[in-house]
């Protein structure tokens, strides 16, 4: 399953009528973004840790890259991670 496949599922869920569908859509879209970032970084030569450390590694790397738009994506990933897993 590719990030694009995951995003397509998110788009289908976003068209649902219930709040649970919308929340699931956001979760799937976030998952697609995570895997897209992971693929880009792997192609650039960065090896992403597995499991729990992967999210932290990605948002830290993106947040410190020196490019404004990419840094913003890193901050967004961090905020989502903290909201979903820490609290």
Structural features, described:
The structure is a single chain. With 87 residues, the chain is mostly helical. The protein has one domain. The protein is 77% helix and 0% strand. The protein has 4 helices and no strands. It has helices spanning 3-14, 19-43, 53-63, 68-86. Helix 3 runs antiparallel to helix 4 (68-86). The longest helix is centred in the middle third of the chain and has 25 residues, at 19-43. The model has no long low-confidence stretch (mean pLDDT 86).
Please give the number of β-strands. Answer: 0
Residue share in helix: over 70%
Q: Kindly report the oligomeric state of this protein.
A: single chain
Which class of secondary structure composition applies to the elements? mainly alpha
Mean pLDDT: 86
Count of distinct structural domains: 1
Radius of gyration: 14 Å
Q: What is the helix tally?
A: 4
State the major sheet. Answer: none
Outline: globular
H/E order of the elements?
A: HHHH
Share of residues in strands: under 5%
Ranges where pLDDT stays below 50 over 5 or more residues in a row are none
Q: Report how far the terminal alpha carbons are from each other.
A: 29 Å
């Amino acid at each position: 399953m590719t990030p694009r496949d995951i995003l397509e599922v998110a788009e289908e869920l976003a068209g649902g009528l219930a709040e649970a569908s919308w929340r699931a859509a956001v979760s799937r879209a976030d998952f697609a973004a995570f895997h897209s970032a992971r693929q880009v970084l792997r192609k650039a030569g960065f090896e992403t840790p597995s499991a729990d450390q992967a999210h932290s590694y990605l948002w830290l790397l993106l947040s410190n890259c020196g490019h404004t738009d990419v840094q913003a994506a890193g901050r967004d990933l961090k905020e989502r991670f903290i909201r979903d897993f820490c609290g």
